[in-house]
Design goal:
- 2 copies of one chain form a homodimer.
- By secondary structure, chain A is of the alpha/beta class.
- Chain A has one domain: TIM Barrel.
- In chain A, the strands form 5 sheets. In chain A, strands 10, 12, 13, 14, 15 and 16 form a 6-stranded mixed β-sheet that branches. In chain A, strands 3-4-2-11 form a 4-stranded mixed β-sheet.
- In chain A, helix 11 links the parallel strand 12 and strand 13.
- In chain A, helix 12 runs parallel beside helix 13 and helix 13 packs parallel to helix 14.
- The N terminus of chain A is likely disordered.
- The interface between A and B is large, with 127 and 127 residues.
- Chains A, B: It is an enzyme of class 2 (transferase).
- Chains A, B: Keywords: Methyltransferase, Transferase.
C-alpha cells in the first residue's frame, strides 16, 4: 500500500461525507490553509492594438488559414472532421475558408467553472477573472542547498505541497516538474495522484498520449464520481500547438479525449519568436491568432461547447546565442495584443507567468518575472500557468523562486482591486483631522484601516538595515530557502475520504502493473 | 587648479567652437558615447480612475484647498502673493477658493525643452515623452566589493560618469549621492561642477537653500552663456512638498529663485502612505492633487509661465515595522491615478523610478524595481527620477543596481514603440515562405530584421547553462560589478571649452573661499 492509501481524510463536502474514525481524526488535526479566491479584476485591460491594427491582424490571420492553411499530422479523423466542416483538405494540409474557424469557435463557452475536490477552491475561468497556476514542465529542479539536478517524484510532491500552502495560488497545476525517476509512460499516474491527495486545489491532466489522458479522466471519475465528471469540468489541460501552424496527432489525440469528456483544454501556440514565428510583433500575433482559431475550432468540431482557453506562450530570442529570452518588451506587446484578440473571440485567455531566463533566483530573475507577471495581470489573462517557480527558461523548477513568485502574486490580487472611492476610502475626515504638517499614523482612519490598507510581502525583507545586518544580511534567496522549509514543515494533507484514496491508489497500481517501463 | 580646470575639451557646438590645440586633441581622442533619444510613447496610458473617481477626487482636492488649506511656513512674501491672488490667509495658513489654484496652474507650459550643453542631448519634457534620470539623494553607496558606506564626492563623480555612459539614460540627474566628505554648504558647487564637466547630458540644480539655487543659476550662466539661460531652461530641480499640505520656506525659496530665472521645478509631494497621507489610494490621491495644485499655482504666482512638472513620490508603509515599502500595488495605483490627474492639469508628470526596499541588488530589488519601472512607463510619467541606482528605500546608491536598472530602461524604450503594423512588420511573406512546420531563423524576413527585432539586455545572462556554469555561475550582481568596472574604465570626458571649464572652477573656488565649512 502506498503513501496515498495510508492517508486518512474525508471526501470533499459537496457530495456528503463517508469514511469513519480515521476521517474524523484527520479532520480534527487538519491545518487550515488559507487560499485567496481567484482574482476578479476591477481594473481595465491594457490595450496596445488600435482599431486598424486589430483589423489588419484579424484579416491576415484569415488569409493565413485560407491560403496557407494548417497541418493536422498523423490524424486522418481530424482531416475528415475538417472536410465535413467545409475546409479544403489536401494531404495533411487543411485550408480553412475565411470566417469558418471563427464561426466554429462560437460554440465554446466564454467562461466555465473548473471544479476542485474542495468546492471552496473551484475556479471560474474567463471574464474578468485571473486564475494562477504554478510552473509546468521543467526536467530539473534547483534549491539553494542542492543546486541544480534532475527532478524526481519527491520534488514533484514537494511542489504540489508548496502550491497547496501558497495563499495566492488558486490551482495546483500539472507537471510542476518532470519526475524523471519514474518511467515516462507511468509518470502521469503518479503526478495526478499527487495533485489529488496532497492538494485540494484544481489541477491539470496529462497530454503526452491519448491513453494517458484517458487514465486522467478515469482517475477523476474515482475522485469526483463518474456522473459528476460527465457533467462538470474537473481538469484543464495544456495542448501545445506545434508552431508554425502544425497540430500533431499526439496532442490532438489528448485534446480529443478531453473535449469528448467535456474537460477543458488550453490550446496554445508555443512560440520562440524568430524561430517558430516571424521576428515582428504584428507577424507573430497574426500567426498566433490563426493557430488559436484553428485549434479552438477543431475542439468544437470534436464536441461543440467543450470548454477551451485560448493560449499564447510567446517569448523572444537572443539573436546572438539563439537562447529564448523572457520578460522582454516584445513578449509583453504580444501578450497585450493577444489578450485583445482573445477577448474578441469571446474566450478565456491563457498567457504570461513568472518567466525568466536567469539561472538563479537573482535580480535578473526578479526583473524578468515581475515584467511578465505585471503584463499578465494587465493584459487580461484569465489563466496564468507558470505563475511561480519558473527558472532558466523553464528548464528548472526552483524551490526558492516558487515561494518568491507565489508571494508576488499577492501584489497582483491587491492591484486588481483598483481604486475604491467609497466615502470611507475618500478619507476626507482623516485629511481634516490631521491637517497641514500633521501625522496620519495615529489618526482614527488609519487605526480603522491600517490592517488591510497595504499589501505586505511575506518573502521580502522590510527590516531596518541594522537589524537585517545583525541577522546575517540575508538576500532574497536565503530568506526564501527558510520559507520553503517552513511551508513544507507546516504542511498537512487536506482531508480525503480514505476509500477514495485507496481506489485511486489501486487504479494507479493496476495501470502500472499493466505496462512495462518506457522512457519515451 | 582642480581636475575640472585641467580638462581639455570643446564647448558644445550650438554656440560655435572656441579653444585651441587642447580642444582639438580632446576631440580626436573622445570616445563616442551613444545616448538614446528620450522615449516618445506610441502606447496608451493605463488609466485606473473612471469618470466618477476623477470627479470625486478632483472635487475633494478643491475642498481640501478651500476648507483645510495649506501652510506656507517662514515665507511672508508667499503669503502676500497668495493674498493678492485672492486666497484667504490666516497666519501661515492659506485657504484657496475652489477653482483658483487650477486656474493659476493654467499658465504653466504643457511641455518644455530642457537644454543640455550638448544640444543632441536636449530633452522635451511633457506630452507623450518620458525622460529618464538617475537616483537622487542617497547618503550611502554600496558596491559588491566595498559594501555599504557613506558616499563621497568621488562616488558622486563615478555615478555621473556611469550616467554619461548609460545609453538609455537621458539625464544626468542631481544629487546622485550625497558627497558627505564635502561641507553641506559647499556640496552643491562640487556636484554641479561634476555634472557640467563629466557629462554633457542635462542636469538638476540644488534646492537646499535659495542662495545655493542662485549659485547654480550663475554656474549655468558660465556654462551656457547668460543670455541663453535667461531665455531657456537649462535646469530641472526637485522641490519637495512637506506633506501633508505644508510648503516650507527653504524649498519655496529655491523654487522662487528657479521660477524667476525661468528654470524648471518638479513640485512633488513626498509621501509615505499612512504617515504623510491617509491609508487609502483615493485619500492619498486627493491630498497629492491638492498639494500639486497649490504648489504649481504658487510657482505661477512667482512667474507666470515658469516651467514646472507635477510630481508624485508616493510609497506605502509596512504597518508592522513602519518601514516604507516599494514596488507595491498601492503605490502603482496612486501612480497611475496621479498620471490621469496630471494630464487633466495639462502638465508634465514626474513619478516612479527603480524603487525598492531591498538592502542588496537581489531578487527583491529586481521584482520591486521592475514593478515600479513598468508602472512608470505605463502611467504616462514624463520625467522619471530615480530611474536607476536606487537601493534600500533610497538610502543607498548602488553601483551594481545602477547598471542593472539602466539596462532595463532599454526595455522601456522598446515597449514604448508599440505595435508596428506596416506591411514589412505584418510579415505575411515570411509566414508564406516558412509554412506549416517550417523554421523562421533562415527566412528572408528574419535575415532582414533580426538585428533590431528584439531588445537585448547587456547586463543579464543569456548563455547556455553549461557555458554560464563554466564561467563561474555568476549572478546578476557579479555580472553588474564587471559592467561597472568596464564602463568606468571606458569613460572619457565629453569635450568642454577649456576656458569655460576654467571659469567654472574659478567660480566654485571663489564661492567656497567665501564660506566656512558648515555641516547643516
Amino acid at each position: 500500500m502506498t503513501e496515498a492509501a495510508q492517508m486518512a481524510g474525508e471526501r470533499a463536502g459537496r457530495r456528503g461525507r463517508s469514511g469513519g474514525g480515521a476521517a474524523r481524526r484527520a479532520e480534527r488535526t487538519a491545518v487550515s490553509v488559507e487560499t485567496a479566491r481567484f482574482i476578479e479584476r476591477n481594473i481595465p485591460d491594457y490595450e496596445v492594438l488600435d482599431a486598424r491594427a486589430i483589423e489588419v491582424i484579424e484579416a491576415n490571420a484569415e488569409t493565413v488559414l485560407e491560403e496557407i492553411g494548417v497541418v493536422f499530422s498523423d490524424n486522418p479523423e481530424a482531416l475528415e472532421r475538417w472536410r465535413q466542416a467545409g475546409a479544403h483538405v489536401d494531404g495533411e494540409r487543411v485550408r480553412i475558408p475565411r470566417g469558418l474557424a471563427r464561426k466554429l469557435c462560437a460554440t465554446a463557452p466564454a467562461t466555465f467553472t473548473q471544479h476542485a475536490r474542495n468546492p471552496a477552491r473551484n475556479v471560474e475561468i474567463g471574464g474578468r477573472n485571473l486564475v494562477l497556476a504554478p510552473v509546468y514542465g521543467p526536467p530539473f529542479v534547483r534549491d539553494a542547498e542542492g543546486g541544480r539536478r534532475y527532478a524526481t517524484i519527491e520534488d514533484f510532491r514537494n511542489f504540489v505541497k508548496l502550491g497547496y500552502m501558497s495563499k495566492w495560488l488558486h490551482h495546483s497545476g500539472g507537471t510542476v516538474c518532470e519526475p524523471t525517476d519514474v518511467a515516462v509512460n507511468k509518470r502521469h499516474l503518479d503526478m495526478l495522484l499527487a495533485h489529488m491527495v496532497y492538494s485540494d486545489k484544481p489541477f491539470m491532466g496529462s497530454v503526452t498520449a491519448p491513453e494517458r489522458a484517458q487514465d486522467c479522466v478515469e482517475m477523476c471519475e474515482i475522485l469526483f464520481g463518474k456522473e459528476f465528471v460527465a457533467e462538470n469540468t474537473v481538469m484543464t489541460s495544456l495542448i501545445n500547438i506545434n508552431s508554425p501552424l502544425t497540430f500533431d496527432g499526439i496532442m490532438m489525440g489528448a485534446l480529443e479525449v478531453y473535449a469528448k469528456a467535456n474537460q477543458a483544454c488550453i490550446i496554445s501556440p508555443f512560440i520562440v519568436g524568430g524561430a517558430m514565428a516571424p521576428v515582428s510583433v504584428a507577424g507573430t500575433l497574426t500567426q498566433v491568432l490563426a493557430e488559436a482559431l484553428a485549434g479552438v475550432a477543431y475542439s468544437q468540431l470534436v464536441r461543440p461547447g467543450a470548454p477551451v482557453i485560448v493560449g499564447a506562450f510567446v517569448t523572444s530570442i537572443d539573436m546572438n546565442s539563439g537562447a529564448p529570452t523572457f520578460g522582454t518588451p516584445e513578449a509583453s506587446l504580444i501578450t497585450y495584443g493577444m489578450g485583445q484578440l482573445a477577448r474578441r473571440m469571446g474566450l478565456p485567455y491563457r498567457s504570461a507567468g513568472a518567466f525568466c531566463g536567469s539561472k538563479l533566483p537573482d535580480a535578473q530573475a526578479g526583473y524578468e518575472s515581475a515584467n511578465s507577471l505585471n503584463m499578465g495581470l494587465m493584459s487580461g489573462v484569465n489563466f496564468m500557468l507558470h505563475a511561480c517557480g519558473w527558472l532558466e527558461g523553464g528548464l528548472v523548477a526552483s524551490y526558492e523562486k516558487f515561494v518568491m513568485d507565489a508571494d508576488q502574486l499577492g501584489a497582483l490580487h491587491q492591484m486588481a482591486k483598483g481604486v475604491d472611492v467609497s466615502e470611507e476610502m475618500q478619507a476626507m475626515d482623516a485629511i481634516r483631522e490631521v491637517g497641514p504638517g500633521g501625522h496620519y499614523l495615529g489618526c482614527a482612519h488609519t487605526q480603522a484601516n491600517f490592517k488591510t490598507a497595504f499589501w505586505r510581502s511575506e518573502a521580502f525583507d522590510y527590516k531596518p538595515f541594522e537589524t537585517w545586518d545583525e541577522e546575517g544580511a540575508r538576500d532574497t534567496q536565503t530568506l526564501a530557502s527558510a520559507r520553503v522549509a517552513k511551508l513544507l514543515g507546516d504542511y498537512r494533507q487536506p482531508p480525503l475520504d480514505p476509500e477514495i484514496a485507496q481506489r485511486l491508489t489501486e487504479y494507479v497500481e493496476k495501470r502500472k502493473a499493466s505496462m512495462s517501463d518506457s522512457f519515451s
